[in-house]
Amino acid sequence: MARTARKKSHWKSALAMVAGVSLAWVGYAYVTLPEVGELAKKNPPSTALIDQRAAEAKEAGRKLAKRQRWVSNEQIAKVAIDAVLLSEDATFFQHHGVDKQEMKEAMEKALEKGELGRGASTITMQLAKNLWLSTDRSVLRKVKELVLTQRLEEGLTKARILNLYLNVAEWGDGVYGIEAGAQAHFGVSAASVSAGQAVMLATMLPAPRRWLPSRKSKLHYQRALRLIEKLQAVGRISASTAAQAREEVERVLGAGKVSGDDDEAADE
Asked: 38, 56, 202, 221: which could join 87 in a potential S-S bond, CB 3.0 to 4.6 Å?
């Protein structure tokens, strides 16, 4: 009994120490991580993700041409914004940076698999990561991401957060922002994309350097069709527009080819 009591005491002390260190680290991170005030009106000249991709290309001995053109939300087709929101973060305008239900489910999956995945990552969280953090999936990075997510939600409007995300998100190798993405993959502006093109752009985001329209990924094709159904179900597009979008997805992606890297992992 005495030995059991000592073991319990040991574990309680260890857990208390871990909790104490974690709280201290969170406090340090809160003080030292970037502020967001300037982003209210000023567009960032670069991001951590853009810099990382450039460094990766340089290390591989190639020059990565950066394609990016900033546009306002008004310069993006409404169907494209609706497609991104419904695909990436359907409750974006209801939550404060973290979708608690999605987070709970993602944590349960992470415990089952023994690793952190992309699940429950809201648009604000993705923006925080793209702007300031690396693409690793460590617990420490996740803590930083949550702190920065809170700062973004407190310091910026939802419209500004969405605009920043739509302009810095990756849409291909060296392609950043929805305007560059629309031009690179379909030869049109973000304001002129069709419903089908909007859906294909939105469903690229989990793996934007692999799920290219030209590669005809089977999963990309399937995700695009599901998103069209969702957009119609919630009244964002009409039945006739949905039918046209399906025809375009079928024409561009076909039935989809199964490729060796065609999986559900995020392109991080």
From this structure: 202
Q: Which two tokens stand for residue 251?
A: 């024409």
| Distance, CA of 30 to CA of 48 (rounded, Å) | 18
Asked whether the beta carbons of 144 and 33 are under 8 A apart, the reply is: yes
Structural tokens at position 209? 């350097």
* Terminal-residue alpha carbon distance, the chain: 50
Helix (H) or strand (E) holding 67: strand 67-68
Say how many C-beta atoms besides its own lie within 10 A of residue 44's C-beta: 16
In the chain the beta strands, taken as DSSP E runs, fall at 67-68, 175-176
Q: How far apart are CA 151 and CA 122, in angstroms?
A: 14
User: Who has greater pLDDT, 75 or 143?
Assistant: 75
The domains of the chain, with CATH numbers, are: 70-253 (1.10.3810.10)
Backbone angles phi, psi at 140, to 5 degrees: -65, -40
21-43 average pLDDT score: 70
Structure tokens belonging to residue 146: 């949550």
Distance CA(166)–CA(177), nearest Å, equals 5
Helix (H, G, I), strand (E, B) or coil at 124: helix
Contact 86, 231 (CB under 8 A): yes
pTM for the full model? 0.82
